[in-house]
Amino acid sequence: MRLMKISMALLVTIALSHVAQIADAAPAPTWTPGTPCTGGCIVEIFDHKGIRRDGPTSAIFRVRKPRTPGGPAPYLDLYNPTFTTIERCVNMVRRIKKPRPGSVRLRAREYTLSGSDRVVFLVDRCRRLSGPGPGPVEPTEPTEPTEPTDGDSSACASGDAPTDTSCSISGGGWLSVTGTRSEADCQLGYTDSVHGAEVVIYDNSYSVTCKDSIHQPSVYMTTVRGDSNWGDFVDPAETCRLQIAPRPSDPTTNVVQKILCPSPP
After folding, report:
1. How far apart are CA 128 and CA 102, in angstroms?
2. Cβ neighbours of residue 48 under 8 Å, at least 6 residues apart?
3. Segment 191-199 long-range contacts (CB within 8 Å, at least 24 positions apart)
4. Given this model, what pLDDT does residue 3 score?
5. Which of 106, 138, 146, 239 is most buried, by the most CB atoms less than 10 A from its CB?
């Protein structure tokens, strides 16, 4: 009788262990805005109103008004201490802003930053899905394909480095411009009160953009119109101060040297 009880207890232990293993292998739940994600969840985004980085050295990116299959959210703060990881995921999210098709699926969990009470979403992995909106059911072990690029941003970088990344006005040749926008062939479009609509080359390795007096080195242009992240940083209605100068490695070509948005007082 005692042996039978021991055997039954052993069987119950094995059965419970098996159930626990199945539970551990189960896919993470899909996150709905307004619900917690403390133990890990799937966050799917298929549209948003732009992305802002917390600061020039921050690994936190705020997605404004993300749209998810469970409804919209005011914002999402995405974070990973490894900058290359979060930058790759954030670039995926940037590229699905409508009318572009597709969505991005993130495996994440809520995380309280050390030394503060701020809660962010710690992103573990991400993948881009095709289609006009929410994608198919997430597999248990998702793959991580290489992020496709529509325009070539490397072609817009000369390799020249800026000598001044301060967000202050110095030197001459400043223009007051509005209506800034990305254009084809690595160009920044703008409107000034004298000449109207103009374009100038934006050099991804040399040109300096400051937003709210903070240098934003992650701003880039590409060879395809509208495929830059300029609109994630600057509103076309803002008045900016623009300085144009010859490119150091090619003095025959004028490029953006510095642009400050909005225009400092």
Report:
1. 7
2. 63, 64, 65, 66, 67, 93, 96, 97
3. 192/242
4. 45
5. 106
The residue among 48, 40, 60 whose CA lies nearest residue 118 is: 60
pLDDT of residue 155: 86
**b vs e for 120-133, b when ≥16 Cβ sit within 10 Å of the residue's Cβ?**
bbbbeebbbbeeee
C-alpha–C-alpha distance, residues 142 and 49, integer Å: 27
Neighbouring residues of 179: CB distance < 8 A, sequence distance ≥ 6: 189, 190, 191, 197, 236
Contact of 175 with 192, CB cutoff 8 Å: yes
Domains, the chain: 41-129 (2.40.50), 154-261 (no CATH)
In this prediction, residue 22 has a pLDDT band, given cuts at 50, 70 and 90, of: very low
Q: What is the pTM of this model?
A: 0.50
| pLDDT given for residue 136 in this prediction | 47
